[in-house]
Design brief:
mainly alpha; 9 helices
Length: about 220
Amino acid sequence: MEQKILDRWEAQFAQYLQVHADNSDGAHDLGHFRRVWRTASGLLQEHEEADPLIVLAAAYFHDIISLPKNHPEAHQSSRLSAEKAGDMLKHDFPDFPMESIDAVKHAIQAHSYSAGISPVTIEAKILQDADRMEALGAIGIARTFYTAGRLGTNMFSAEDPQALHRELNDKLYALDHFRVKLLKLPSLMNTAAGQALALRRTIILQEFMEQMIEEIGELPLRS
């Protein structure tokens, strides 16, 4: 598909979300959708068999419904987003190829870490990798602590920031989230390019953790 066609679709999706989406959550706003698409675009270069329009639509609508992390139905967000995205594409974008909507919905439903759904198409695998990249690097650090602030949780345990004498608990401490989930993401990537990029961004997380522990006044991080 020609780049100018993709650009035209992207402009339509962005304009639609500016009007219709709830952009009050800075971790799942239009900027997040744009970054996921930009990352996915890079991954697409190694997978010419993938349909970029499916990935583009999924990238822009994958978090159209994003329940708070502490909501009892938070794990349903990707399913709800998939259903809403399908309806939106069908009714608000009549020129979108109807035969591609199911693939967009699968990519959206499978992207979520908490949903536990395996991506079966290359488009879904690319979206999942691109979205997980948002949890790594400098953006990942910012989003982790931004979300912790919204939920009213602590940056770290003042008594035991490294969890040397307690169980890790990322529902209480943002720093714990690095070891509970984020540092594991490179091994969960679906594409070779995604894994390579994730490993590079993970270094930023590790350096941040080391610096934070140093500033807290703790001994070096345990291995």
